[in-house]
Design goal:
The chain has 240 residues and is of the alpha+beta class. It has one domain. The strands form three sheets. Strands 3, 6, 7, 8 and 9 form a five-stranded antiparallel beta sheet that branches. It is elongated.
Length: 240
């Protein structure tokens, strides 16, 4: 009995030691800090963006964001989208408002079918193009982040991938008609996306300008006469 008790104590001691070692491997910031990330898409005329960057003159993106706020108030710019996601330091988060768009990617060709002899038809029948494979694309807005706070609690290492995606129409790659004039088409969707994928260092509470993108026109084509500024702001939220 004493041998069994002694062996059990050794096993428990080893298990406790292993748990202590695992705790030491977890960085303190992973327990005590949360990070809230805000990403803004702000649309304006291309000329306004050029003027802002010429006036900037330094690396203070907080002052740049204030000038953009003035443009928004004057209706010279508009907020296109705002993403917000919160995660613990060292963690990953995703947020999205999406519509699953399913579309065909492969088609069977039209086939000619000879009509029965007793049927008086102008010509042989044709079967329509038949989709045989499909894919799904998320339309809407989504954000993916991966962040961590440094030892000072003021600098955030951030990887982010915000995205806005639209279905802007279809492209017809082939079209044919049967004997009765019924049309059959092979179509593929046109997709427009505003996205960036980058890694940056943020100062707690200060906005940062990370990208400029070209939005789509009303016809779903690239519109270089306008620009979308992408701002990021990180806030460290201590857990009490």
């Amino acid at each position: 009995m004493k041998i069994h008790i002694f062996a059990t104590m050794l096993l428990f001691t080893g298990f406790s030691s292993a748990m202590d070692d695992e705790k030491e491997k977890v960085p303190p910031t992973a327990i005590k800090d949360l990070i809230r990330v805000q990403v803004e898409y702000i649309e304006m005329p291309h000329e306004k963006l050029t003027a802002l960057l010429e006036e900037k003159g330094d690396s203070d993106d907080a002052a740049l964001r204030l000038k953009v706020r003035e443009l928004i108030a004057a209706k010279d710019a508009k907020i296109l989208e705002t993403f917000v996601a919160t995660t613990r330091s060292g963690g990953k988060a995703t947020a999205g408002s999406v519509d699953e768009f399913i579309y065909p990617t492969e088609y069977e060709p039209m086939e000619i079918v000879e009509p029965p002899p007793e049927k008086s038809l102008p010509q042989a029948m044709k079967t329509p193009f038949c989709p045989t494979a499909f894919e799904t694309r998320n339309l809407g807005s989504s954000l993916e982040i991966n962040s961590a706070v440094d030892e000072t609690g003021k600098i955030i290492s951030l990887s982010l991938e915000p995205n806005m995606t639209w279905h802007t129409g279809n492209l017809v790659w082939a079209e044919d008609k049967d004997a009765f004039g019924n049309a059959s088409k092979i179509e593929m969707p046109r997709i427009y996306s505003l996205s960036t994928n980058t890694s940056i260092a943020c100062v707690d509470g200060k906005p940062q300008f990370v990208a400029a993108l070209s939005p789509k026109s009303d016809r779903g084509e690239i519109d270089t006469s306008r620009k979308v500024m992408v701002f990021v702001k990180c806030d460290v939220i201590p857990v009490k």
